[in-house]
Specification:
single chain; alpha+beta; Heat Shock Protein 90; five-stranded mixed beta sheet; two-stranded antiparallel sheet; 29% strand
Length: 154
C-alpha cells in the first residue's frame, strides 16, 4: 500500500465527473453532497478511488432511469464517512450476509447485470478494512441500497 495524505473530497469530485457520462447514458441523476471542511486522510489514493468508483458505478447501474443517486462525504467524529444511496433493486434480505463474499452476487443483481464478477464489493471491503475503516451497508429489496465506508482521520 502506498499511503499518503489525500484530499478525498477532490478524489470524489473527480470520480463523479468521470461517471457523469455513464449516469447520463442511464438517465440517472447524481446528487453530490460534500461537507465544507473534509479533513485530509492518510490512505492509498488509487485503492480508495477504486472503491468509490465501484460503489458509485454500482448505484448508477442498479438504479432505475430518472432516479437519483445521492453521494455524500462528511466529517464523522474523527473519521470521514462516504456513502452512496440509490433507490434501485436493493439486496434480498436472505442474501445480505453473503454480499461481501468473493464472487457472490445477488440473484436480482445477476438478472439486471449479467456481466458482473462478484469481486467489486469483496475487494472494496478488503481495502477499507486494511485502512482500519468500516463498511456501511443498508438495503431493502425493491427500494434501494446505501453503500459506503468510514475511514479514520490520521
Amino acid at each position: 500500500m502506498i499511503n499518503r495524505r489525500l484530499d478525498v473530497a477532490q478524489i470524489l469530485r473527480d470520480e463523479v465527473a468521470l461517471l457523469k457520462v455513464v449516469a447520463d447514458q442511464r438517465s440517472v441523476e447524481m446528487d453530490l453532497k460534500i461537507d465544507k471542511k473534509v479533513p485530509l486522510i492518510t490512505a492509498d489514493s488509487e485503492k480508495i478511488r477504486q472503491v468509490m468508483l465501484n460503489m458509485i458505478d454500482n448505484a448508477i447501474y442498479y438504479s432505475n432511469p430518472h432516479k437519483k443517486v445521492i453521494i455524500s462525504l462528511k466529517n464523522s467524529n474523527g473519521a470521514i464517512e462516504f456513502t452512496v444511496k440509490d433507490s434501485g433493486i436493493g439486496v434480498p434480505k436472505s442474501e445480505q450476509a453473503n454480499l461481501f463474499g468473493k464472487f457472490f452476487r445477488g440473484t436480482n443483481a445477476r438478472k439486471k447485470r449479467p456481466d458482473g464478477t462478484g469481486v467489486g464489493l469483496f475487494l472494496a471491503r478488503k481495502v477499507i478494512l486494511s485502512h482500519d475503516g468500516e463498511m456501511i451497508f443498508e438495503s431493502e429489496e425493491g427500494k434501494g441500497s446505501t453503500f459506503g465506508f468510514k475511514l479514520p482521520v490520521r
